[in-house]
Amino acid sequence: MFAYILRRIVYVIPIALGVTIIIFGLVHIAPGDPLNAVVPPDAPQETVELLIKAYGFDKPIPIQYGIWLGRAIEGDFGISFATGRPVAEAIASGVVNTLVLAVGAILIGMTLGCLIGALAGYFQGSWIDKLSTGFAIAGVSVPHYWLGLVLVIVFSVEMNVLPAMGMGPGGSREWAWDSEHLRHLVLPVITLSVIPIGIITRSVRATVAEILTMEFVQTLEAKGLRSGRIFLHVVANAAPTVLAVAGLQIGYLLGGSILVETVFSWPGTGFLLNDAIFRRDIPLLQGVILVLAMFFVFMNLVVDILQSIIDPRMSRG
Amino acid sequence: MNESPASPSSIDVTQVVAKSRNYWSTVLDRLSRDPVTLAFGAILLLILLSAIFADVLAPADPFKTSMIKRLKPIGTDGFPLGADELGRDMLSRLLYGGRLSLVMGISPVALALVIGGFLGLVAGFLGGKINMAIMRTIDVFYAFPSVLLAIAISGALGAGIVNAIISLTIVFIPPIARVTESVTTQIRGLDYVEAARASGARSLTIIRAHVLANVAGPVFIYATSLISVSIILASGLSFLGLGTEPPNPEWGLMLNTLRQSIYVSPWVATLPGVLIFITSLSFNMLSDGLRTAMDIKL
Amino acid sequence: MKPALLKVEGLKKYFPIKGGIFNKTVAHVQAVDEIAFEVPRGETLGIVGESGCGKSTTARLLMRLISPDQGEVVFDGMEVGRSDGISVRDMRKRMQMVFQDSYSSLNPRMPIEGSIAFGPIVHGLQPSVARQRARELLAKVGLDPNLFIRRYPHELSGGQRQRINIARALALEPDVLILDEAVSALDKSVEAQVLNLLTELKQELNLTFIFISHDLNVVRYMSDRVLVMYLGKIVEIGTVDEIYDSPRHPYTAALLSAMPSMDPDKRTTVSPLTGDPPNPINPPSGCRFRTRCPFAERVCSEVEPELQSLSGPVSQKVACHMTNPSSGHTKVNSKGS
């Protein structure tokens, strides 16, 4: 099994490299000269050439890629075209803000998802089951950016109990654990949690239902084990699958939070991404996508390895 | 064996060629007995038809602006569903918007089905090094969360309907290719494929005659389950300004532009999203129902 | 002896096992290890052995569904796969196979007619002629063409499907039919019908059979000669009477003694086989059977016995030190010398 883990880690490296190549390549397939983002159109020729040299645009593309990658590994993502500040700074603060959202959403998703899913799995076919399944399907069918908008309309516009935008008072960009920030957190985190709730509910329900039909549970019942104990057995067997789903969801949420962050003007990585795209801020763009994608790859790896440890059937040792 | 019984009737039993139920007619039969799926299928049909016949159904020109009529609420005279921020009739824009939203939602999946399906089929059937080469490349794209990849590619290519479709197609090729490869590999190991090889047929013939029909079912179901995601993503791209460009009517874009007006006309602003939701939900339910109907233990 | 229609020489197939960090090949499953035999035209050769002995792999090697690592297969005097011999594709026109699982052998989405006509069409026959042949074959295997021609596999019973598999195999008008556990999955009564069908067809079409099974009674009923395999090697081969009445290899004897019999005279003192066969990845040195053989001695672990003819008017060949007077085994039977 150790060999499997090692093999899995080694295998990630070419994938990660491939990801970096794609990210780097994306920018260069974009129509338009990347230079236009930095250089004002009426700049004199010497300035243009100076800037080209400064940003390394004169070097052949594979070299540019190598330089970029080398610096990125060390944590230097370059300077933002728009703000002139190190990209790494912006990403760091953005990541924190998005993590707050994502982790919050996962916690809600796990709690509600496990609860509803387990109930649905236990009472298969009942109205609880049908209701939860309907709820779960709705969860994955709803465009969450629209849901955010609806929540804003209900709670901010109509009822005026929660703020419509931003992360904190005065357009705060630094997360803090105070009541103001928490008030701003409520709507976005609920919005973001809808999809994980849907997916986790479905997954838990299926797993619980499957375990309950397995013979060893019926053997336990026949032996007279109290249903509380059976419940623990079910939990133990369902845990690997559920954890896997949750783990994957975190990675997914981190990468996919842009829509919700746009609705709520939440200053996280998604918001940064939006900015970077429209201002053609290449270093920022590359940096953000790189960090988010790498995190997703990393989460996938962690989930895989954890699963192979917890669930002996999965390991190919 | 099986001779016609001595029967006084004039019908010669041996002449009756037994009509057997083939697979698809069984599926259709099961579907027709599933009221929930049928209901959502009907809803979907309604949405599709209203988009196709938008020019007949729409009461007004979706591009005609009128600054006086800005943001009129639902139920205003002449504007049954209200007016948007430029005074255009919502109902008409929603109807026409369906066209773009549906096209942008369905075509990437259709394209990805062709491309990804082909790749997965080749990888699954040929196995070995070719399989590794194709699937590892696909894995690299699979390493991105789909929303991120869609936005990254769209961002690189720029706004526009075609660019958005290209971007989403690329996003959907990996999952479809994976599923196709998995199913193809399974089927390739079955005895009837071995028997076909044993009769001396060449690979292409075997794929065409035996593999394709059996792979198509599961892959198709999987693809239909992706449509609901595609619709949300496509509208999402427009919502971010990366898909359809104004003044074209499209549900996601409408959500974007109406967003500024939520304090003035909140409920009008939510209408496009309602449609996205219903459409996506219907595709999901339909896909689920199809999967249940096709899951016949033969 | 009639000239051999099929001759196998030194056939070997090892399957690599991957493991370790870089998925390198760490060991091999020695599925088929240099076997050789002949099948004269018109004969039924039975192949018996426990699960995992290599019978099915042998069948697939013959049909070239798997490529051998070593060895040659000679069909009607021509070596298979060589440019001066017979091509694999042409060989498949003359040798066909019927598989064990009647259901998974048929494409669930294709009507029966299509499945049977597929082979001939692939080899160039006109579709309409091929379909006509399909109907004739259905009748030949005892199914009414009018009722079955457009049916799908899931609508039929196991016995019917297996008849169709036979019809499909016969569609190319082969000389040799390999039956790989073809009746093992059928109910006994259906099995009897199918076996009778096979016997009739063999007579009528002048076929040659290779009949693989783990069911010793069925093999006895169907075969002219029998080949016994153990862990990838042939341990004994002879006519059906020679094998069943006077088995010379301890393994054969043990297999036969485990056969239930109604005949009170057929009592035996040979100890039945115990334990599981050892791992084909790391077979025992010398004679592979020695770990379960009541007569094993030191020479058995050092030297691998070769398949040798017994002296006398028998065609039997045995791979055992006890039948080889010069082996050094203490229990060499007198019959062996």
Written description of the protein model:
Chain A is an all-alpha fold. Chain A is built from twelve helices and no strands. Chain B has 298 residues and is an all-alpha fold. Helices cover 70% and strands 0% of the residues of chain B. The longest helix of chain B has 38 residues, at 203-240. Chain C is of the alpha/beta class and 337 residues long. Chain C contains eleven helices and twelve strands. Chain A binds chain C through residues 3, 6-7, 10, and chain C through 19-23.
Question: What is this entry, summarized?
Answer:
Chain B is an all-alpha fold and 298 residues long. Chain B has eleven helices and no strands.
List its traits.
A: 317 residues, mainly alpha, B: mainly alpha, elongated, disordered N terminus
How are the secondary structure elements laid out?
The complex is a heterotrimer of chains A (317), B (298) and C (337).
Chain A: H1 2-29, H2 45-55, H3 61-74, H4 87-122, H5 127-141, H6 144-158, H7 179-213, H8 215-222, H9 227-256, H10 258-264, H11 269-279, H12 282-310
Helix pairs in contact in A: 1-12, 4-5, 4-7, 4-9, 4-11, 4-12, 5-7, 6-7, 6-10, 7-9, 9-12, 10-11, 11-12
Chain B: H1 23-32, H2 35-52, H3 54-57, H4 90-126, H5 128-142, H6 146-157, H7 161-188, H8 191-198, H9 203-240, H10 251-259, H11 266-294
Chain C: E1 4-19, E2 24-40, E3 44-48, H1 55-62, E4 70-75, E5 78-79, H2 88-94, E6 95-98, H3 112-122, H4 127-140, H5 145-148, H6 158-170, E7 176-180, H7 188-205, E8 208-212, H8 216-222, E9 225-230, E10 233-239, H9 240-245, H10 250-257, H11 298-302, E11 308-309, E12 317-318
Parallel strand pairs in C: 3-8, 3-9, 6-7, 7-8
Antiparallel strand pairs in C: 1-2, 1-4, 4-5, 9-10, 10-12, 11-12
Based on DSSP secondary structure assignment, what is the total number of beta strands of chain B?
Answer: 0
Span from first to last CA of chain B?
Answer: 26 Å
| Unreliable spans of chain A | none
Number of beta-strand segments of chain A: 0
Output the helix-strand order of chain B: HHHHHHHHHHH
Order of helices and strands of chain A: HHHHHHHHHHHH
Q: What is the number of helices of chain B?
A: 11
Assembly status: heterotrimer
Number of helices of chain A: 12
Q: Which outline of chain B best applies?
A: elongated
The percentage helix of chain B is 55-70%
Give the overall form of chain A. globular
**Helicity level of chain A:** over 70%
